[in-house]
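Colleagues,

For the teaching module next term, I've prepared a clean inverse folding example: a structure given as tokens, and then the sequence designed for it. I'd like students to try predicting residues themselves before seeing the answer, so please don't circulate the second half yet.
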């Protein structure tokens, strides 16, 4: 089992030293393909460049290797490290995410049923005093305690695409599909 508090305490300072904000640390894949997934972003752009991913991956690898050499490895056994941007239909993991992405559609799953429901899908209205507000497709308001949320993510919509500007599109017109002359 992985202790996420320990992993966050190791990984967050590495991201912060690069001026990045840690979005999520997850471990998945079971015994077949164990993967440590780290999502981070630049606070000013909410994105990450490929160089940022590579640099953060090296920093995390070096830190985890040093801990392993000291006999303090926080993860038993071999695993794959994956460092990425949260992407456009990003997970919502921090209270600030629910405020920053208010007005956009999201899917929210709770740890336990609330009002007979485990899942909510609708427009985020924000967060206040630890309570996330979401309006479902029928316009019904739901107040969900942040601590009761298991997972949440944005839904890919035209509105979200319009609100998410890439860092650079330089060279996009020069790209050729494989097999073309």
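(Answer key — instructors only)
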């Amino acid at each position: 089992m992985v202790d996420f508090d320990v992993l966050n305490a190791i990984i967050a300072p590495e991201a912060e030293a690069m001026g990045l904000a840690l979005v999520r640390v997850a471990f998945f894949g079971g015994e077949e393909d164990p993967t440590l997934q780290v999502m981070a972003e630049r606070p000013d752009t909410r994105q990450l460049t490929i160089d940022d991913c590579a640099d953060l991956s090296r920093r995390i690898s070096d830190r985890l290797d040093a801990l392993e050499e000291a006999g303090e490895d926080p993860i038993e056994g071999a695993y794959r490290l994956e460092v990425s941007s949260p992407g456009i239909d990003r997970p919502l993991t921090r209270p600030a995410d629910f405020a920053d992405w208010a007005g956009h559609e999201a899917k929210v799953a709770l740890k336990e049923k609330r009002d007979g429901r485990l899942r909510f899908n609708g427009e985020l209205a924000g967060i206040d005093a630890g309570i996330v507000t979401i309006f479902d497709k029928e316009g019904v308001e739901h107040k969900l305690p942040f601590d009761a949320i298991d997972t949440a993510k944005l839904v890919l919509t035209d509105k979200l695409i319009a609100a998410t500007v890439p860092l650079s599109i330089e060279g996009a017109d020069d790209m050729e599909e494989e097999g073309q002359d």
